[in-house]
């Protein structure tokens, strides 16, 4: 293991976060800390994960798309952000793409993603995801 990968692994271990096994096409719920004045609360952002970038490194991020009041809204979250309270997989999607950017031009029934009923977690991942 080279020096940079080793340093990244140490930083990720020091954060102590458990990231569930999810990929593009999965519907996820992200609990994000929102600061309003002096108070902080957790706001859930639920939608379809349309992409993941930079793999499992410290700079990894993922994009979540949801429809809010008839308008498509996308948000990019850093995977190891201190503002993310929790990531929960709501349902697994059966897709054949790594990036779901084509959903931007789809509406209604054509934007649906089939559920992956017989999903098997990857080996080496935590089983509670």
TrEMBL record:
Signal peptide: none annotated. GO terms for biological process: translation. It comes from the Bacteria. The keyword NAD does not apply. The keyword Protein transport does not apply. Keywords: Ribonucleoprotein, Ribosomal protein. InterPro entries: Ribosomal_bL19, Ribosomal_bL19_sf, Translation_prot_SH3-like_sf. GO terms for cellular component: cytosolic large ribosomal subunit. One of its GO terms (molecular function) is structural constituent of ribosome. This protein is located at the 30S-50S ribosomal subunit interface and may play a role in the structure and function of the aminoacyl-tRNA binding site. NCBIfam families: rplS_bact. Belongs to the bacterial ribosomal protein bL19 family. This is Large ribosomal subunit protein bL19. The lineage of its organism: Bacteria, Pseudomonadati, Pseudomonadota, Alphaproteobacteria, Rhodobacterales.
């Amino acid at each position: 293991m080279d020096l940079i990968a080793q340093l990244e692994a140490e930083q990720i271990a020091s954060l102590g976060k458990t990231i569930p096994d999810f990929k593009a096409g999965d519907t996820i719920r992200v609990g994000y800390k929102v600061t309003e004045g002096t108070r902080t609360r957790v706001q859930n952002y639920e939608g379809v994960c349309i992409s993941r970038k930079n793999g499992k490194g410290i700079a990894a991020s993922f994009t979540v798309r949801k429809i809010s009041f008839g308008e498509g809204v996308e948000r990019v979250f850093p995977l190891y952000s201190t503002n993310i309270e929790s990531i929960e997989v709501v349902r697994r999607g059966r897709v054949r793409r790594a990036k779901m950017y084509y959903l931007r031009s789809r509406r209604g029934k054509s934007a649906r993603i089939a559920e992956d009923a017989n999903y098997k977690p990857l080996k080496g991942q935590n089983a509670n995801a």
